[in-house]
Design brief:
The complex is a heterodimer of chains A (251) and B (461).
Chain A lengths: L1 E12 L2 E12 L3 E5 L6 H8 L9 E9 L2 E2 L7 H7 E4 L10 H11 L6 H14 L3 H4 L12 H13 L5 E5 L7 H14 L4 E5 L3 H7 L2 E6 L2 E7 H6 L4 H7 L5
Parallel strand pairs in A: 3-8, 3-9, 6-7, 7-8
Antiparallel strand pairs in A: 1-2, 1-4, 4-5, 9-10
Chain B lengths: L1 H28 L8 H37 L8 H15 L9 H39 L7 H40 L2 H6 L29 H32 L2 H16 L2 H22 L9 H25 L3 H9 L4 H30 L2 H6 L17 H9 L8 H35 L1
Helix pairs in contact in B: 1-2, 1-4, 2-4, 2-5, 3-4, 5-15, 7-10, 7-12, 8-10, 9-10, 10-12, 11-12, 12-15, 14-15
Classes of the chains: A alpha/beta (251), B mainly alpha (461).
């Protein structure tokens, strides 16, 4: 089933066009990897999906992005609700300078999800458990989140993102600042999370894309060159550029 | 004469720079590798010119007057004059030689004056000769010494180091000197007025000290109810409090607006405009408070049936608050802007609105820096003088009514020190005691503020 349908998306930074005519379908409850050399526009595309590009003054987005058949670029779209449904994990772990508990309860608080303290405790616990962090931090929920290791911080950010039960999770190179062990933990987690969420991950690591994703899109110079099942893209791509990139001949 | 000599020495410095460099180029042209760039050879020679000149000039400035005086007064020795009388004679001689002597001219003095003039001219010409010959000798010596492998870079760098060190030392020594002068005068003050009376006394009335005839002996008991500093400390903190009530909300909110809401274009114009407030001289704020705000508040109060003094604490404090707005807004703007964008993104991506993000993430993260900026604002408010002198009263009332007039430490120092002073008088020394307490308060505030700001910086860098 198609969860997100992007149609003819163009993105401009001022006068410079960053994305050209991107049309891409994202399958529900699967992991879609976006790969491509630096500056190819894959992160820009990711940020279109929860309208994070609104934060950048000079950025403008054209075209349709349908999520559950609703165009999020419509004027009627409530960005607050949209971002409740579409969570995001960033490249660099960015826990708030607050306690672990406050980090995870942040989303439920601002969206008024929990009715009582007890309910909030439950949300925090399940989110941390789903993020595979609970066992490590359950005794220090009220210590600052910035005191954790890099990998733990990133899992905390994942817990923060899933605390509001989003339908989609966007991950922007979530492992690029982490060591191999932490990376493996996060990849395992992604595999687990796809049961309940649709995941789109931007990554520079071809191996990671091959390991975690079912679908892959290859971006180059603002164009979507090729997309399809990960198997096909990695074993038998149609386009020569994709072939060259995947085999490491450029990029 | 000295000016010409000085210009000449500067020219000489430039010439030696030129010759030093030229010699270096000459060495270079013989395919020898230099140990430093040719400029360093130039600077090296210029330093050999500057240092001896400086030393001789300072020695001359120190010893010339003493030696001339000794020579003049040697004529009067063995005549049984006292030291004081000798000094007087010397002063008369100098005055006469300048043509400014108005008293009776005795032949003795006249002869001395002539001798004085001739001695001065001898000193002057010998100075010229000595300075020039020593400079030329030293430059020539250095010029001969420089060769392809002589070390010139290190001495030049060391010289620069020494010059910069002297400059900072001068700044530090001045500060230390000021602090010591404060300390000694304050100690003298507390020898007459007990510390307890000063710190806990509730009656400040230094005008009483004017009454004393300075020829009378000091009687500490007559000051028993004169120098109680509580009213002016209270007034100082009260006015500062009013000022911060104005400055903190407005400054903070405009800082948040500039950092988070304003578009790049608005920010580009609004920030300098707000900072113009900081460039207005405090004396202008002072008469704005005294002549515009004060009377306006008085009229407003009268129309509402309130009794408002024309020099109310409210007027002075309010205007002072306006003066402090740019400090707080500009500093908190900087602090908020330096909160990493990734935290904002994290919050927005959770679906938080701008105000939620500011309230829950950015403000707590920036809080230490904001507290620092507020503390710096407070220390400015406490040290502010002109506005209070002009717009607030000079009588130290102990009051917490913002509509009455009150006075501050700074204003009282001005009151005490305006006009003629008698040194060593408790009234004058009271100013030093007040200055000392003011210094201590602002010092503590600044230390705390800087600590807080620094701690904040460590967190994100």
């Amino acid at each position: 089933m198609i969860k997100i349908k992007a149609k003819d998306v163009d993105v401009f930074y001022g006068k410079k066009q960053a994305l050209f005519n991107i049309s891409l379908d994202i399958e529900e409850n699967q992991v879609t990897a976006l790969i491509g050399p630096s500056g190819c526009g894959k992160s820009t595309f990711l940020r279109c999906l929860n309208r994070m590009n609104d934060v950048i003054d000079i950025c403008s987005v054209k075209g349709e992005i349908l999520i559950n058949d609703f165009n999020i670029n419509d004027k009627g779209c409530d960005v607050v609700r949209l971002r409740e449904k579409i969570g995001m994990v960033f490249q660099k772990p960015n826990p708030f300078p607050k306690t672990l508990y406050e980090n995870v309860s942040y989303g439920p608080t601002i969206h008024g999800i929990a009715q009582s303290k007890q309910e909030m405790d439950e949300i925090v616990e399940t989110s941390l458990k789903k993020a595979a962090l609970w066992e490590e931090v359950k005794d220090r929920l009220h210590e600052p989140g910035t005191g954790l290791s890099g990998g733990q911080q990133q899992r905390l950010c994942i817990a923060r993102a899933i605390s509001v039960r989003p339908e989609v999770i966007l991950m922007d190179e979530p492992c690029s600042a982490l060591d191999p062990i932490a990376t493996a933990q996060i990849e395992e987690l992604i595999d687990e999370l796809k049961k309940e969420h649709t995941i789109i991950i931007v990554t520079h690591s071809m191996a990671q894309a091959a390991r975690v994703s079912q679908n892959t899109g290859f971006f180059h110079l603002g164009q979507l060159i090729e997309h399809g099942s990960t198997d096909k893209i990695f074993k038998n791509p149609d386009n020569k550029k994709t072939q060259d990139y995947i085999t490491g001949r450029f990029g | 004469m000295n000016l010409i000599l000085f210009t000449f020495i500067v020219l000489l410095g430039f010439t030696s720079y030129y010759f030093g460099r030229k010699k270096a180029y000459t060495i270079q042209s013989t395919k020898k590798r230099l140990t430093a760039l040719p400029q360093f050879y130039g600077y090296y020679l210029a330093i050999w010119c500057a240092i001896p000149a400086f030393i001789i000039f300072s020695l001359w400035a120190i010893f010339e007057p003493t030696i001339v005086k000794l020579l003049i007064l040697s004529d009067y020795s063995n005549q049984g004059y006292l030291d004081d009388e000798l000094n007087l004679i010397y002063e008369k001689t100098k005055a006469l030689s300048r043509g400014q002597f108005t008293g009776e001219i005795t032949p003795f003095i006249e002869a001395s004056a002539e001798k004085y003039l001739s001695l001065r001219s001898i000193a002057q010409s010998s100075k010229v000769v000595i300075v020039l010959s020593i400079i030329i000798a030293s430059v020539a010596y250095a010029y001969k010494r420089i060769s392809s492998n002589s070390r010139t870079r290190e001495p030049v760098e060391k010289f620069l180091n020494a010059v910069l060190f002297t400059a900072s030392l001068a700044a530090i020594l001045t500060t230390v000197g000021i602090v010591f002068s404060l300390i000694f005068q304050t100690i003298d003050f507390f020898k007459v007025i007990p510390l307890f009376d000063f710190v806990f006394g509730t009656h400040w009335y230094p005008a009483k000290a004017f009454v004393r005839d300075s020829s009378e002996a000091l009687d500490p008991t007559m000051y028993s109810d004169t120098f109680g500093a509580v009213p002016i400390f209270a007034g100082t903190f009260f006015i500062a409090f009013i000022a911060m009530c104005v400055a903190i909300p407005i400054g903070l909110m405009s800082g948040i607006y500039l950092a988070e809401y304003a578009s790049t274009k608005v920010r580009q114009y609004a920030k300098p405009l707000i900072e113009i407030l900081a460039g207005i001289p405090t004396v202008v704020y002072g008469f704005f408070a005294a002549l515009t705000v004060g009377p306006f508040l008085k009229e407003l109060g009268t129309s509402m049936g309130l009794e408002v003094s024309a020099e109310s604490a409210l007027a002075a404090g309010g205007v002072m608050g306006i003066m402090i707005i740019p400090f707080i807004s500009s500093l908190s703007d900087d602090v908020i802007t330096s909160v990493p964008q990734s935290l904002r993104d994290g919050s927005y991506a959770m679906g938080a609105t701008k105000s939620e993000t500011i309230k829950r993430v950015i403000f707590p993260a920036a809080l230490p820096g904001i507290v620092g900026s507020i503390l710096l604002g407070v220390s400015r408010a406490i040290g502010e003088t002109m506005i209070v002198v002009m717009a607030s009263g000079l009588a130290a009332n102990l009051t917490l009514n913002p509509l009455e007039s009150t006075s501050t430490i700074t204003a009282q120092i001005v009151v005490i020190l305006i006009g003629d002073q008698a040194f060593g008088d408790p009234k004058t020394q009271a100013a030093f005691a007040l200055g000392m307490s003011l210094f201590l308060v602002t010092l503590c505030l600044n230390i705390v503020a800087l600590k807080v700001v620094k701690k904040y910086r460590e967190k994100y860098e």
